[in-house]
Fold:
Amino acid sequence: MIGIRPIKKEEDEMALDFNGTFPESLVVEQPIAWDALKPAKVDAPTPPASQCAGCAVRRMCLPAGLADWEERGFSSVRIGRRRVRKGQALCREGDPFHFMYAVRCGTFKAAAAKRDGGEQVTAFHLPGELMGFDAASVQRHPTTLTAIEDSEVCCVPYSQLSDASGELRTLRTRLVQLASTELVRDHQLLMLISNTHTEARVAAFLLGMSKRMQERGYSPSEFLLRMTRAEIGSYLGTTLETVSRCLSAFARRGFITVRKRRIQLLDVPALTRAFECEMP
Amino acid sequence: MIGIRPIKKEEDEMALDFNGTFPESLVVEQPIAWDALKPAKVDAPTPPASQCAGCAVRRMCLPAGLADWEERGFSSVRIGRRRVRKGQALCREGDPFHFMYAVRCGTFKAAAAKRDGGEQVTAFHLPGELMGFDAASVQRHPTTLTAIEDSEVCCVPYSQLSDASGELRTLRTRLVQLASTELVRDHQLLMLISNTHTEARVAAFLLGMSKRMQERGYSPSEFLLRMTRAEIGSYLGTTLETVSRCLSAFARRGFITVRKRRIQLLDVPALTRAFECEMP
DNA sequence: CGTCTTTTTGAATACTGTCAATTTAAGTGG
DNA sequence: CCACTTAAATTGACAGTATTCAAAAAGACG
Structure:
């Protein structure tokens, strides 16, 4: 399975290879051994919670902060697993709300259809992040969640989660906290997009991705963007051409190197200045 | 007190007149009789919840959906009242998170300071809306909440609210639902701002305000904007001049009339088309 | 190996932001 | 009650930036 193959796809230490054999059963009880492949942040002193024990992103996921004794209560929530191939939708706009989804590995985009036929990307979700909060409002998913690489998620039944949170204060707090964090992220994105200069947005996007990569144990200075230029453009409220031009401009100035989707940050201070629009 | 006075301030049936006498005691137990002044939406079949009984915006506020028997549990949350004068801050960026605030009457803006010294408005809050969700993330308020007209809020201690929600499933659901609604609003705002054409943003802003006014029992076709052009511009990711120009352009085409902050919608379909960028 | 998607780059247009001046309303104090 | 001062809003002109349209190059995929 790991034979000699031409390195056509950029060397991609993060990618999962489903290698053709993709089981049709969407919900599996036992995790795959992929966990070993995913480096974990080791400084967060959070004890594992039941079914989440052994999950690489446990420390930044839903059970983060739960004490030992709370494991039992949390384990009453039956969590399923589901694999989603690149390009497949986990749920679609308008679908009834039954599950919240936690990214185990891979990357998702949340997008809503616009009247003109295009799509508006509202978020990119990395491993450890919880998706589906926005569905609690109307009991329907307002966005389509699409895997932009082969991915795996945990499916958390919302009713069970709500029940469990009734008994576990920590879990209750955690839930609101996660929703709140998403709110803060959105507000930051708003501030970003309101910024006139597109270069500032792209710089902030790169810095943000760098930080999130680092939080997940990857190199903050060199990473692979999982999304297309068009998706970045939609997310940042601009066009794919402008994104491409900004990246090229940064590369020309020596701030970064760009090889298709592989980004290398060379001058973080310069990027930060670009973000703050202090360009002399 | 209601003598003959020159109509210099636009006739303002919604404004509260503090009339000089503004008590220094910020938290009062008994509500003022102002409720009678605020028309309520009458079609939502929600029973009153304890302290909220008699509040005009109860049906769209925190206790919405609570059953009779749940009143008791909810009444364990001691809710204070606080009046905030125009221009005063209810809480500031960085303040520790102890209360969530429900707008009883008046209008607030949520804004964060930008690096360049300016401010980014992330939301406008009308009566019945809950503020402060974004503070649960880091236990600090990430935005400054400022009254943009004389206002009154209910102060809900978060810890008590969380405790009560542990016992009351409906309240628990309602809390997440409110946070979720705010998320959806933010996503819609994102979609709005991503729209290239500023006219579409301003059109959507007007239509949105119209809808929210209607939900609160006011006329959807004629209302007073409580915020300055600069605040609208910040909210929509543009400048105050552009907002002014868009309003003038709409008025010139006969879509609306503008008299300073008083807006009258004349041609909603045309505004909707402007929103959808279908301008022939 | 050929097709298709993604990305880059160029050129022209249209739009918005910026600077500046004017008008109008609102608040203040005599 | 009026004059004055201050804040908000409107409008114009110009420069700068991003979008649009178009074409070509580079990988990805089967």
Notes: Confidence is low (pLDDT under 50) at residues 1-11, 17-49 of chain B. The first helix of chain B runs from residue 71 to 75. Residues 8-10, 196-198, 238-239, 241-242, 245, 260 of chain B lie near DNA strand C (CB under 10 Å from a C1').
